[in-house]
Amino acid sequence: MKEYILIAGVNGTGKSSFRGVLEGQGVPLGHIVDPDLIAKQNNFNELAAGKQAVRELQNCLKNGETVTQETTLSSHQVRKSIIKAKEQGYRIVMYYIGLNTKYESIYRIANRVRKGGHDIPPDDVIRRFTHRFEALDRIVPLCDKVIFYDNDNGFVKVAEITDGTFRYTNGYRSDWIVEYYNRFISE
Predict the structure, then answer these.
(1) Are the CB atoms for 133 and 180 separated by under 8 Å?
(2) Is the Cβ–Cβ distance between 179 and 133 less than 8 Å?
């Protein structure tokens, strides 16, 4: 079955590293759409890389390919792409990577820059962190499955949503997943 896979989270949560974990486990990810890699390879800014990523994604969906997209969920284009993919019979799976604080994301980005990686302005990170649950509210109902990982100290699976049912997956409950759970059940 063709899948549209999202690896999502605020900047600095470890989306690219998590993709490497999935690849190492042999999870079939299909065509990878990675705006950060697009920006680096083409010397694009974040906006231009995002536009190129959308073109790549649309092309994959048009061709019926399994596709994986790294995303902060901050663009409304993600929702539009998911709706289009669902109309074309795609199964939607999202891996969401979370951290407890915006400061941890900012610290990780600064560390990445020190190692030669790309930067994201702190104001963008703070805005995306502040609105992360609203972004999840727009996307989660469209997904067939959502798997949540905490990356405070390595990737730990903390919860999943399947067929609209939320369940914790182990005894570890980071602050952010408890906050999201409380929001999820109140809707």
Answers:
(1) yes
(2) yes
Using the predicted structure, report yes or no on whether residue 156 has a pLDDT greater than 90. yes
Q: How far is CA 132 from CA 26, 40, 90, 100, 140, in A?
A: 29, 25, 24, 12, 12
Q: Which CATH class is domain 3-186?
A: alpha beta
The C-alpha atoms of residue 119 and residue 135 are separated, in whole angstroms, by: 22
pTM beyond 0.90, yes or no:
yes
Tokens matching residue 126: 């703070």
Say whether 67 sits in a helix, a strand or coil: strand
Instruction: Tell me if 79 sits within 8 A of 132, measured CB to CB.
Output: no
Question: Where along the chain do its domains lie?
Answer: 3-186
Enter the tokens of residue 67: 């596709």
Task: Return the amino acid letter for 44.
Answer: F
Instruction: Give the pLDDT score at 46.
Output: 75
- Digit-coded pLDDT (tens) for 28-64: 999 999 887 888 888 787 788 888 888 999 999 999 9
Q: Which two tokens stand for residue 112?
A: 């990445």
